[in-house]
Amino acid sequence: MLKKIASFLSIIAIILIISGCGKPKTSITLAGSTAFQPFAEKLAEQYMAINKNVSITVQGGGSAVGIQSANSGAAQIGMADLVVLPDEAKSLIATVVARDGIAMVVNPKNKVENLTAEQIRDIFNGKITNWKEVGGDNTPITVVSREAGSGTRSSFEQIITGISLKKDALIQDSNGSIRETVSNDVNSIGYLSHGLVNAKVKAIKLDKTECTVENIVSGSYKLVRPIFLLVKGNLDGENKNFIDYILSPEGQKVITGNGLLPAK
Amino acid sequence: MKKPGFLKKISGEKGVEKILMITAFSAISAILLIALFILNEGLPFIFKYGIKEFLFSSEWQPSKGQFGIFPMIMSSLWVTFGAMIIGAPLGVAGAIFLTEFAPVSVMRIIKPTIELLAAIPSVVFGFIGVMVLAPLIRNYLGGPGLSLLAACFILGIMILPTVISISVDSILAVPKSYREGSLALGATTWQTTHMVTLKAARSGIVASIILGLGRAIGETMAVIMVAGNAVNVPHSPLDSVRTLTANIALEMSYATGLHRQALFATGVVLFVIIIILNSIASTAIRKRKYGK
Amino acid sequence: MRILPKYTQRGAVVILMAATLFILLVLAFIVIFILMKGFSVLSLNFLISSPEDMGRSGGIFPTLIGSAILPILAIVIAGPLGVLTSVYLCEYTRETRITKIIRFATDCLSGIPSIIFGLFGFIFFVETLGFGWSILSGGLTLAVMVLPTIIRTSEEALRAVPQSYREVSFSLGASRWHTVKKVVLPNALPGIVTGIMLSIGRSISETAAVIFTAGSSLRLPTSLFDSTRTMAVHFYILAREGISNENAYGTAAVLIIAVLSINLIAYWTMNRFIAKRS
Q1: How confident is the model at residue C140 (pLDDT cuts 50, 70, 90)?
Q2: Contacts of A181 in chain B (CB under 8 A)
Q3: Which value does ipTM take for this structure?
Q4: CB neighbours of B255 closer than 8 A, spacing ≥ 6?
Q5: Domain identity same for B45 and B67
Q6: Which residues of chain B does A169 touch, with a Cβ-Cβ cutoff of 8 Å?
Q7: Residue range C44-277, CATH number
Q8: Could you say which of B87, B225, C214, C265 would form a disulfide bridge with B156 (CB–CB 3.0 to 4.6 Å)?
Q9: Which domain holds residue B88?
Q10: Cα–Cα nearest to C74, from A187, A16, A224
Q11: Is the pTM of this model over 0.95?
């Protein structure tokens, strides 16, 4: 009986070891911004269909993960959607591949249509706590924000300055989960990538400007940030090829087709 | 006489013993490695930053270099306490019913069923908490719904299999003679149960609750989904909270330097809490095995 | 006024039965809720096709592979290591202070939150050793996570074997290893297998430690160094990001069915084994 178990286990071990020596394919891992992640997946899929000798994997984790893993080598390309890259990214080569607006979202049932930057600041600081103070119903405001390492959050707080997030704000760990939370809670307000807004949430106007592609391009909508792809060392080889593909008309079509703005 | 070949040598008695010793040594080293790794990253931070500041400050602002985990400690403690209030009475009651009042055939089916349910992934519990429980709390009790109360409830359910399983084992371990003696004196089954059997099984039941608490305080995914993750000392069950485990999970992918060490230090705190809980549980179990 | 004992008994039974029913209802609700909502998506196609559009449509085949290979890797490493360690501790050493400390340490470590193993695995395997987000990182992390549990349950199983069995074997002239191999281990096998099954179940359901070590790639893994997504992680991501609630439920349904089946098979084999031996 024990012999059987032993031989079974050794067969499995051998299989695993053999599979470990996979075909020599260039492997690129991207990690970071959850806002860009779905686009990176799509682009990777299309790129791999054309280039069969490259294998691209996309992980999430937030912009800070992007910078950190590019630095540590856990990823070949880091994705970060920040207005200003922090010091940690100084040694990395940054390429802008897209731009993205940040939409302020509330539940579709919320009747508030517009908020000023001032009001948003006060809401996120906890100075305004009831929707009736900004033209809505008499219900408490539930503030939803991202975790500290999020590029979306950093950009949001850098553009709408003076935010010291109130203590009881809910924290979610990706654009998608903010969207889910806001769509489930009538009293909530959050922010997420313009490219990820869908029918489940309502994007409100910021200072009477709507979050549309035109307004972002023209500059009248203020909450915009670039999406960087970060590479350590030299930008060459397959990394460069993939980034070039993203900047090509084909790649940019994927980006604009789903709500992001082109790099230019 | 030919000297035994290498293969023969290692399958002989001494050889086997050597192999086993090396195996045991490697396994234990691996385990120690982890413990030492975490302590090595976490302890220096605690001493450098100051243990009082770390444990009792409410300011968790990594970007500003502030690492007070008091809100998280309180949240973890409250979540565990709440899970105990919900899970312990239910679990023990269930165990008592299954052992003392239900027919043996019923118990034989239900106990394994409940143990099977311990295998349901915590993310499933968390998701049901988000979709079913949080809206209920928000609509009928107020607050954001993703709250301490939601976490307590979900965790209370999650520890049920642990509590029930071990309590049932403990109650069944009480010698039949105890019950028979009590019944012979004219007591009802319930009187026997709460005056004799439960008293005898007490340490095992306590151990089961403590092990359940250990599971509750260590739970990460379900809590991230339903507790709201606000860095807040809870003032009411409807407040959103962040536990020690959630804090580690939310921040670890991008934390560097001091921030990362702070997360390891949080791990050390969890280590200490688990060790305390385990010590209490094993004293309780030892009491059960060897009598008062 | 004193209530007659027979009435307190009735009252107690009602309360206790209500508690038990409540527990069963809640647990049944969870399982039925998931199975019902996921039922519409379940089909052979769902199981064998790959996800499309980030999981919005298509199947979950790569995640099935991920969910299978990570626990297998973990058990292949931790199983023999753990069982042999407990054999050594139990059969070849005397009960000393050191063994007591070791036992306490493994006890504690089997109760450590999985996120801490995830933290360790991320920093040690993914970054320091440079394995990256991969099956290797995930499997090794899971292995160290379940190792204490396997050591502990195997030890309990070994200790439950009556000393007399060993003594009889020795008195017949058998060596220690021979006794262990032919007498002690077969008798302890049910307990050991339970421990291993528990660990497999825990590995399949594990999410926190896996996301940070094996990553979340949806591509079919072709080598140990590829990232992979398990069903538990896939469910978490689909549900959290609202990508597709139906597919989320479907994944959860498959996951629950898989875990319950494994546990059932474990129970059944164990009972048969015990029956055969006695």
Answers
A1: very high
A2: 146
A3: 0.85
A4: A149, B62, B262, B263
A5: no
A6: 230, 240
A7: 1.10.3720.10
A8: B87
A9: 51-290
A10: A16
A11: no
